[in-house]
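The data are set out underneath:

___
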Amino acid sequence: MRTRTAPATAPSSAVEPAAPEHTGGRLAGVATMIGSGLSNQTGAAIGSLAFPVLGPVGVVAVRQYVAALVLFAVGRPRLRAFTWRQWWPVILLALVFGTMNLSLYSAIERVGLGLAVTLEFLGPLTIALATSRRRVDVCCAVIAAAGVVVLMRPRPSTDYLGMALGLLAAVCWASYILLNRTVGRRVPGAQGAAVAAGISAVMFLPVGIAVAVRHPPTVGAVACAVTAGVLSSAVPYLADLFTLRHVPPRAFGLFMSVNPVLAAVVGWIGLGQGLGGPEWAGIGAIVAANSLSILTSRG
């Protein structure tokens, strides 16, 4: 789970003397973004190695447990102080968080890492384009739509259920962004994200037990699932907290748009999930649409 914080700003009088340190912070932030993106996609790839034993449900269950432990340690929520006005968006966030990860990992099992992450990425891209009235964003929407058509074009080998799961993950990610804004306004710090992760982990507890009883896990499978939780939840979350203190939001958003490409490369190198020219063109169109929208924005 990712949460966004506002980047720190320095007074104008301090800009000139602090230039070397500021530049160093930018470079560190960029390096952290690259590491975070690779960690996220590598974690998903490693988690998929446990699918034959645990299935996507079992892997997601373990990932939810890891995310809850990390976020509770960081957020330290004060549960008794929560009001109903704070509880209801947190509970909805927990439901969306669990559904998002489950649908994404189920899509990865069926259509591969690159296509699944690209389809999921349509969620935040749709929100960004839908809330804009600029003509350039209309062009971006057309480019992204063309990419989707290419990726989902009918073929004998097309897995429509896998595609649908990827689109469900996109809807969940869009909902996650909107709910996170509400939670961020009503709950201080990272407490809301921590409680949402905890509720999601509790919901997956009986699921995890059922999977363990029906399909006794191996040490290797559990290790892969735990690694996925650490690399895809803990590392990106902590990395984002550092990155957003040193990198402008526009640069952060621009790099985030490269994640589908990172996923495709990791899936190709790590899992042997090669993509054809049309698939790369579709992924490129969606990434280009988001990049163009960000680069031409004034905020």
Remarks:
- The CA atoms of residues 145 and 261 lie 17 Å apart.
- Residues 19-48 form the longest helix (30 residues).
